[in-house]
Sequence to fold (204 residues):
Amino acid sequence: MSTAKRSLREGRTNWRKTVVVALPAVLAVGAMASVMAEGALAASFAVSGTSFQVSSGKLTSQGLSSYVQIDRDVDGKGHPVALLGIGDATLSDICQAAEVKTPLGTVVFKLMAGGDAGNVTASNLIIDGEDLVGDARFGTAQIGRDASTLDEVPGVKGERGKFGLQAGDIEVAKVRSHAWSATGGNFRLKGMKLDVSLGGKKCF
Fold:
């Protein structure tokens, strides 16, 4: 058989070799995702330098832990935030929107889910927010607790001696927030819709 016949045709992929190379990486990512979902590993990354809107008609959870920390972008600039660790969260709907400058103009990147499609759920939802507005009810609240001793949400603890607060259960209606990052384990976005448009409408 000639060399040409033995070679893969142009544009073809040797899937067997690809799987062998990719499998370790896939397993590693899966393991990290599993650990993060259990709250044993905090996500750490440079924020984009652009905050975004987050809104929901109603948010409920069986646990909340919060303390102040600093998020940094790739240039090292710090952004003070309130880290909100929310246990098993249920949201009646969710909207996330960010403005992105492009050569064509300002584009609004918008993601929506929930509503008539059903509730949005997430385990160990972490939001680094610069503000939060809504009608709230906290159960068994502890305000001023040392951030290193917080235990309502697995894996969500701050530095020793720092101000923290937590609550056994929460309910917040008409949620409005500006955030720098959001992460979560086992996000379930029913009826998800993604929209990118010039001069588009934001969440609020």
